[in-house]
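Hi C.,

You asked whether I'd gotten around to modeling the 309-residue construct. I have! Everything is below, sequence then structure, no commentary in between.
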Amino acid sequence: MKSGQDYQAWFLDQHTKSEFFHQKLHEWGLLSVADAIEKVEGETLDWDLPALGISDTAWKKVIHRGIKPITVFAHPDILMSILSATGYYRMLAMVSQKSMGRVGLSITRYETGLSIPDELNAIVISNHLNQIISRLIEFDEHVDVREFDLWRGMAAGSQAQGSWQNTKGARVEVIIKGLIQRRLREKGWVSNEAEARMELTDSRVVVFADEPDIAIYKSNKIRATVEVKGGIDTAGVLERLGAALKSLRRAREESPIATTILIIQGVSMTQTAKNDLEINRDVVTNWFTIEDIMANEDMREEVFELLGI
C-alpha cells in the first residue's frame, strides 16, 4: 500500500485523467455526431459499393445482421452534411488524424467543425476509410453492432491519450477550465463562444488564458479571477504560490472588489504555504484544493457561486 501522500497524488492523477478523457468526449461531440448519423435514412442514398471502397463481403455481413450501413460505412453525402462526421468514420477505421495526414488526407479541420469537405475530398476520404473498415469486418467471423462502438472508443481513447500527453504541466488547469466551461454551457449562460472566450447572457465575458487562468469581466473590468496551480512537489509549492499571488494581486489592484480564487494541489501544501495564504487574504479572497474540487460537489458549487455562474 502506498503512503498517504503517494496514494493521494496518484489518485488525483487518475481522477484528473479520467475527467480529461470525459471532457474530450463532450468537446469532440462524439455522442451528438453519432446520434445525427443514426437518424439519417441511409437507404435513400446511392450506395455504389466499388466507388465508395466498400467490399461486397463486408456490406453483406452488415446487412445480414440488420445493421444500418450508414452507421458503419462513410458516405460522401454525410461527410458534406454533418459537421465532424469525418471523425466518426475515422475512429471506426481506428486510424489517427496524424496517419490520415501522412497519406495526404488531412482531416483535422473537418473534425473540429471548422469546415466540411467538398465533394471530391468527401469521395476520396469515404473511399479510403471504407476500404479499412471493410477489411476489419471481413476479418471478423461474426459482426456485432456493439463492436463498432468499441472500435470508435479505442480510437477516441488513443486520441485523448495523445492530448493528455501534450498538456503536460497544464493538465490540472485544463480540467478546471473544462469544468467551468461545461457549467456555463449546461446552465445556458453562453450567448457567444470562441476558442478562449465566452460571452455570457448578462453581458459578462469569461476569458480562459494565462495569468490569470480564468477571468470574468463586465464593462471591461475584472469581476472574478481564478488561478490554478498543479504539481505535487512540496519543494516548489512556494514558487507556484508566489506566481499565483502575483497574478491575483494585479487583479485586485485593477478592481479591489474582484473575487480572487486560488485552486492549488492540496497534497503539495506545506504549513508555510498555508501561512502565506492567510497573510495574503487581501489578495486571495478564497482558496480551494484541487482534490476538494474534483471530489466534492458542494465545493464545486461554492466555486460556481463565487463566480456567479
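If it helps when you're writing up: The chain has two domains: 19-167, 170-307.

Thanks,
B.
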